[in-house]
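Researcher: Good morning. I'm working through a list of sequences from a screen, and I'd like to move beyond sequence-only analysis. For each chain I'm collecting a predicted structure so we can compare shapes side by side. This is the next one on the list. No need for commentary yet; just the structure.
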Amino acid sequence: MERPIEESGDFAGIPDAFQRLWTPHRMVYIQGGEQPHIDECPFCRAPSLSDEEGLIVARGTHAYVLLNLFPYNSGHLLVCPYRHVATYDLATPEETQEIAELTQTAMRVLTTVARCDGFNIGMNQGRVAGAGVAGHLHQHIVPRWMSDSNFFPVIARTKALPQLLGEVRAEIQAAWPASGSAPAGGVPAL
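Model: Good morning. Structure tokens for this chain:
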């Protein structure tokens, strides 16, 4: 028997216009999510691997870009400084400049390759803010489409990813410009 959706006006306190989406299964992650030790940091390790093994699409002088191993959407990229630094305020001016430049290039490349309609871009600073790897600064670039399934992962605990990570990485890397300005032509397959 299906339970009716509770209206916010029925909650205790002052009613508002927001509907709530309760996800108690996330408490396991919030309360007990293990953080890797610095010796096991995936963002320190990735640059020592081949681009294919590390899912790296571009390498800069102070920072690099890689695919998220657990993406919210196809083409979900991360921009990380090479240096193991936890928060944005601890990054050097050179690191922050290159993170910004790589983010702009990633947006251009994803727009060309994936034909996305927009982006979610952000950094979770610290474990309490939801950083999966709180010890190493990383910025998320999540491509979004008008028709994407925004809450599908939350409601159904399922992600619909139409391509394998290796294929996505190869397409993004192939479209990544050598100069960082305009992306090369690419087949929009994401």
